[in-house]
Structures are given as structure tokens and as C-alpha cells.
Amino acid sequence: MGSEVEEEKVFDAEAASSMMEKLRESFSSGRTRSYEWRVTQLKNILRFCDEREQDIVDALRKDLSKPEFESIIYEIAMLKNSCKVALTELKHWMLPEKAKTSMTTYPSSAEIVSEPLGVVLIISAWNYPFLLSLDPVVGAISAGNAVVLKPSEISPASSSLLAKLIPEYLDSSSIKVVEGAVPETTALLEQKWEKIFYTGNGRVGRIVMAAAAKHLTPVVLELGGKCPAVVDSGIDLQIAVRRIMVGKWGCNNGQACISTDHIITTKDYAPKVVDALKHELEKFYGENPLESTDLSRIVNANHFARLTKFLDDDKVSGKIVHGGERDKGNLKISPTILLDVPRDSLIMNEEIFGPLLPILTVDKVEDSFDIINSGTKPLAAYLFTNNKKLKQQFVATVSAGGLVINDTTVHLAVHTLPFGGVGESGTGSYHGKFSFDAFSHKKAVVYRSFAGDASIRYPPYTPGKLRLMKALLGGSIIGIIRALLGFK
């Protein structure tokens, strides 16, 4: 007689509701609110990173062929830095913030108290499946919430590792991991959350926002967009292209929300930019980049087909000036440069999210700002120039989630800056204290005594009371004196 195989439990709306009930009980008990609980969980995330580093690297290699360097630096080390910042600053973040009061409430004092929201949902992305899963969790834990993490099914090895190990390191009564695809995510989105944090694309972002609207649930949407790099002449071109390249192909082979989507430069300068890119690409990845172990592969066959469609577009196929090699069996596409790509082509109307780098040309570099502003607002925009006036114009006129002058992607590592989008590139932000704030409610508190009670608030209302109240609310000392003396 064969052994009976235990049927795998289905995670549906009923299972999600049951899980939520237990999490709400845990949150209501107050266990997640204590400073000690928060610190313990953060320290355990650090321990997880240290003890399971090789497991994480191996999972990322299975999912994306991600180079060990990128896995350790851009996922593990950045996550550890987030934990260390939170552990250093948490006591300060939790303190009530003193607020000024007005003459209207005199005598009084006021403060802003940060309180946890409750039970929050974090839906993460496949391209940085550890950092983008656990970095928001750091913020949610720091703020004292109970958390459900839904990793991306597109990176199954990483998702499986998180589901297996998170319960070993973190408080499983308050922090849960749910694996799965559309049915499981749908079941989760049917529940009422105190906040939903989603990292991914705009199409799914709209679904998340629509589901959240049913319960009036606030959201943070970390999306993406076509992040441009404007390249001026008169710069150190070698350094500029190397920084563009490391923010493109050195960021998961272009599969990053803040990687350079395209370059904009002048017609006259474009040939020099192309030559510099070609020269540095060979230094980075050799003569046959498809064999390089320093480049991630495309995540799956669907994304490979999507990128192939960009390259095979009639408007684009003749514009390839470097690269374009493909290995369908191993899901690899070499770093590819395209020059003078039409703005109405498919590749210029969708986020590329891969190793293809179009170059648009303009008559003068200032025209690039109009091109950027004519499209949807990107998550990041980059400018390479030594021209002070151009820098000022760029900062003043270009709207994006974040801007970097003379580099790419580095703002991600500055924890004192908010990281997030604007418009279609996202809503809300996180990193450092901004992560704590994203998962906190800022509660206004006013303290008064029974002294100094003023009869002017109470009926019967008189013209004199009205004059004095108007003066008090207007904040005019002279007006208050005039009202007290009976002047109109």
C-alpha cells in the first residue's frame, strides 16, 4: 500500500481571514508595541543575514543568476544597513515630538505621538527579492506593527527561503510569510489592512490600489518608470558612462526600478557617448558578455520574450549599434545600445526593465528636460554635467521620485533621503526614518489644565466675544488689545 500524500492546504480568503484574526489578537495584546520586541526582531534580521548569507546568495543565483557581488552588496549589506540605522535611531524615533501651540489654546502644550498602524501587508518584487521584501519589513517592525509578507512568486527560490527561514528568526505570532501567486495575493487583498506596501509595476499597482480603496486602506506604491540619464558635453565621459553602466547592467542587468532606462544627449555628442560605452562594456564584461558571470540573466521566458519584442520592432531593429546577442535557452541578452530610437517606438513607451539602452538625441541638451516632462514622471532621473546653471534648471524643472547629478542610483543608499515615486512612478516613500513614518500614525495630542478657562468660548455669544475670538484666531496682538478695549 502506497504512502498517503498529505494534501497541501490552499491559502484562500477563509485562510487569510483566519490568519488576520490571529494577527489582530497578537497586535491587540500590545506585544509589538514594546521597544524590546522591536529591537529583538531587528537584531534577528541581522542574524538572519549573517548566518544565512550563503543560502541567500544561492537562492538569488537560482532565480536570477545574480552575481555574488551584487547579491551581497545590493541586497544583504543594504538590508543590514537598514537594520543598523533603525537600531541606532529607534529610541529617538519613538519619542513624542514636541509641537508649538497657539494663543487660542493658551495655556497648553502639544506633541505628536507615533503609534503603530496595526496589521500591515507587504507585497514585494522579484528583482531584489530579499532587499525589497525585508527592507519594508524593517520599517513595519520598527513602527511596532504586525506584518504579513507576500514575496514574489517570480523569484521562487528566494520566496521559498523567506517562507522557510523567517519563522525561525522572527516572532511568528506577529510576522507571517505567505507564498503564492494571483489567487493567494487576491485572498490577501480581500482582507482589511491598516496599510498595504506594494513594490512592482503600475498594472498591479492599480489592482492593489483598487482593492485597498474598498476598505479605505492607505497604500505605499513603489513602482518604476522610464528613468532617463541626460548627458551633457564637457564632462569626464569615462567616469560618466561607467556610472551609467553600473546603474544599468550592474543593477541586475537592467532589471531594477531605478536603473537607467535611456540616455538623452545631443546629436553632436552621441557618437562619443556610444564609443565610450562600447569601450567600457568590453572592460566590464569581456568580448562575449553572454558568458560573463558578472551579469544576471533575464528572470523568465515571459520577460525574455517581452525584451525580444522591443528589439524586433521594425522601428528599432536597425538602430542597434552594439550588442543585441541573445541566448534563449539560458535567458541571456547581452548589453545592447540603440542609437536614435524613435520616440513613438514600443521600447520608448514602456519601461524597459532589462539590458537594452536606447539613446535619444536632441539639438541642445536643455531640450532633454522637455522630453522628460512630456512623459510620465520617472522614479529617478539623472544628469551628467559640469554646468551649474543646467544643474539648477534640472532640479527646478524635472519632476521625478529622486534626482542624482553626475551619478546614478546612489540616492538609494542615503538613508536620510526619502525613496519613492511621484505620479505613475509611485506614491509614498521609505528608507531610514521615512520607513518608520510610512508605517506609523502621527497622533496629535494637546494637553490642557483646568486653569485659564475663558468665558468667550461659551454662549451667550456677544459682539464683543466675536471680536475677541476673531482677533485670537487671527493671531494679532494689536487686534486682541483693541477687542479687549472694546474697539471695533
Task: Describe the structure in your own words.
- This protein has 488 residues and is α/β, with parallel strands linked by helices.
- The chain contains 16 helices and 20 strands.
- The strands form five sheets. The chain has a seven-stranded mixed beta sheet with strand order 10-13-14-9-8-15-16, sandwiched between helices. Strands 5-4-3-6-7-18 form a six-stranded mixed beta sheet, sandwiched between helices.
- α9 (237-246) packs across α10 and α15 (463-474) packs antiparallel against α16.
- The termini are far apart.
- Residues 1-7 have low confidence and may be disordered.
Helix content: 40-55%
User: Whole-number average pLDDT?
Assistant: 94
Helix count from the secondary structure assignment: 16
Show unreliable segments: 1-7
Give the N-terminus to C-terminus distance in angstroms: 100 Å
- Structural class call reads alpha/beta
Q: Tell me the major beta sheet.
A: 7 strands, mixed
What percentage of amino acids are in beta strands?
Answer: 15-25%
The tally of beta strands, per DSSP, is: 20
Strand order of the largest sheet: 10-13-14-9-8-15-16
Radius of gyration: 27 Å
Shape: globular
